[in-house]
Every structure is written in structure tokens, then in C-alpha cells.
# Entry
Amino acid sequence: MDGTPGEISAEQQEREAALVERVLASYADTPDPRTKQLVEALTRHLHAFLRETRLTEEEWKRAIDFLTAVGHITDDRRQEFILLSDVLGASMQTITINNEAYANATEATVFGPFFVQGSPDIGPGGDVAHGAPGEPCWVEGTVTDTDGKPVAGARLEVWEADSAGRYDVQYGDERVAGRGHLHTDDQGRYCFWAVTPTPYPIPDDGPVGELLRATGRSPMRASHLHLMVVAEGYRTLVTHVFPRGDAHLDSDSVFGVRDSLVVDVHQQIPTTPTPDGREIAGPWARIAFDLVLAPER
Ligand code: BEZ
Ligand code: FE
# Structure
């Protein structure tokens, strides 16, 4: 026999199944029922993977080395385990499970590693860019509940990469750019200046990058602007807006794209008056995006 699953003898299959049962039995006295459920399911799925793929001892060692490298590159500035979860689609699946579609509420997507607590308060019409290079982009919309009632005083957190494809925290200096927060007005309206989102690669100089290259996958994220909306009585919304027409919408490296989050970016020629009278020498753009919040569960 050559070891393909179809040719495994009944005796061998029994030996493997008996081991799975022994491991499962070892958890019989787990006091917390949820912990018991998780370790039992993990055991069943992990052993199913090992048995289905007929994992070799060399491959097992390679997997251990890979996970060790993921641990070694992780520190308080870089979280390679989350990146791994992202490229495996595990982050997006967890978000999907925990943010069930609710009426017409805006869909959630990945949080990513570049949010920073304590962003500057830019106020209505303020500029998130704060010197970040990129084409100026006016973003406006409303925050409402699923019946269309305005949500006043909602806190909107915004963060994005600059046109060089980097977040401020990736420069290794103290700059704060491409991030900020503001609140909706009495009618639930918001507006701010940002830079037009452009595509960028996720960090691919570590083991996750190696995995992407070994599987012929691109590290590129579809262009996006991150938004988080926090309002009392509503489910916190973590989402993105994705410009329509972006080349990476169908191959986003972390599977974050949802059709409902893809928006038109309206390019404006130089000399077009801006909504707030800001003087801009070159071209600029505008995006309209209404956010709908689900009630808190
Ligand atoms: C981001 O959009 O910022 C991001 C998300 C997942 C992995 C890396 C970056
Ligand atoms: Fe991002």
C-alpha cells in the first residue's frame, strides 16, 4: 500500500480512531462546559486533518518550525498570529459568525492591526490625513438605526494607509497621520477629509509572507478606509469602505471585502469648489457612505 487514505487497512484505521477517542476521553472531567466543547472539537478536527492528509513527520516538524517563527517575530508592535488568522480567513469567519446580518445594518469586516487608541479629535469636517500623502478625499454620510432614525453623537473612528501604502505606526517615528475621530451631529450626519484609499500589502517579510508566496497568493489588500462606529444602545460597527473598481477587490489577502461596502469614488477635477471652501490645487475626490447600526444584543 502507498498510504493514500483509500488504502488504509481496517486495523490501521481502528488504531488511529482509538487514539482520537483516548484524547477525547482525557477531557471528560473538564469543569467548564464551553472549554470542554472547544477542546473536544479541536481534537476531532485536528486529528481529522492529520488523518486526511496523512501528515508526514517531516511536515509535522515544518509546521512546528513555522509556528515557532510566527511566535518569534511577534512582539508588542507586530502580531504575526493575528496576521496568520487573517490570511487563513479565520478572522473574517469569526467576524461573520459574531456579526449576523441584521435587517439593513451595515456589514462588519476585519479590524486589522493598525488601530491606535486615543486618536486625535478632528471634529466635523476635520482632516484625518494630517499630512499623510495622498489625494484629498471628502467623505460624508449619516449614521442611522435600521429604521432610518438618526444616531446623534455617535463616535466615528477613522484610520487609513497613506498613498505610499503605509500607516503612520509603520514609519517608526512619532507621527500621527491618517487617523482621527469625530462625532455625528443632531441629524446623525458626519463629514471629514481623508486621502483617497489606495491598495497596500500586508506585512509579508515574515512567516505569513512565506506562506503567501508558497501558495502563489498576493499580500495586497484592496484599497479601503477603516471606520469604527460606537454609539450607546447599538452594536459597535467595525467596517471599511472599499472604492469600486479597485484591482484587488476579488483577491483581498484577508478576505475582508463585502459587496455592500464597495462605494463609488467621485473624482473631481482641479478648480471644482470643495464642500467646505477648502482650497485644493490639484484633483480631489468624494465618497458618500451611510452607516446603519444594529441594536445592541
Ligand atoms: C488592515 O486593513 O489594516 C489589515 C488587516 C488585516 C491584516 C493586515 C492589515
Ligand atoms: Fe487597513
